[in-house]
Amino acid sequence: MSTLNVEDIQRELEYHYPDLRVINEDGRILVRGSFPVLHDAFVLDRFQIQVEFPPDFPDSFPKTWETAGRIAFTGERHTFIGGASCLQVPEEWLSLPRSERTPLHFFQGPVHNYFLVQCFLDIGLPWPHGERSHGVLGVIESFLELLGVDSPNQIVPFFKALQHTWIKGHWDCPCGSGKIIRQCHQEHIRNLQSRITPDVAGKAIARIIEQLELHRKEQERESSV
Ligand SMILES: [Zn+2]
Prior knowledge:
A hairpin with a 2-residue loop joins strand 2 and strand 3. This protein has 225 residues and is an alpha+beta fold. The chain contains seven helices and four strands. Strands 1-2-3-4 form a four-stranded antiparallel beta sheet. The chain starts with 5 loop residues before the first helix and ends with a helix. The chain has helices spanning 6-13, 90-94, 103-122, 135-147, 155-162, 186-193, 198-224, and strands at 20-25, 28-39, 42-53, 63-66. The structure holds zinc ion.
């Protein structure tokens, strides 16, 4: 059930972001306006943006666009084909406690971080250390960190285990050690279960498949030029 309400979001944002307007356009909840990139309390730069809140927010991730044509639509700039901004891997956001997934936190966290990096790129600085890569590589980096595992090969098996609401100790451990879960990653998996719901685990697996597919298409396109 959606509890999204235009007035509530406006009230939540107006102190920090007086230049953003929340509107309901044909049932779509949109936030539009001038977004300040801050360093301490100093405004470094501003971007014209639009954010669309999905009806099931905060259980899915809003879509964000830079609307003045400042940011090129390239992987280097972390934009999707079609121009939406690639803020972060949504499952990372969905694994935060629900109380932290508010509209204000969305603007102060993923949106702010994204446009801060765009400021760096505008003045020719390299992609900052610790920021994720774009595309499939960024998704893999994100999931390795989220799951606390070392190898990309462990990502899908761990998410598959997390798709169950319970796990059995005699199952093979998803880490690939050949041991059973009880003698290996049982505690680790229990900790993950407290943050990553079966629904989010399913979305994460779909995300990897989607990104691998996109990656394959991009490579085909490059090799046919
Ligand atoms: Zn294990």
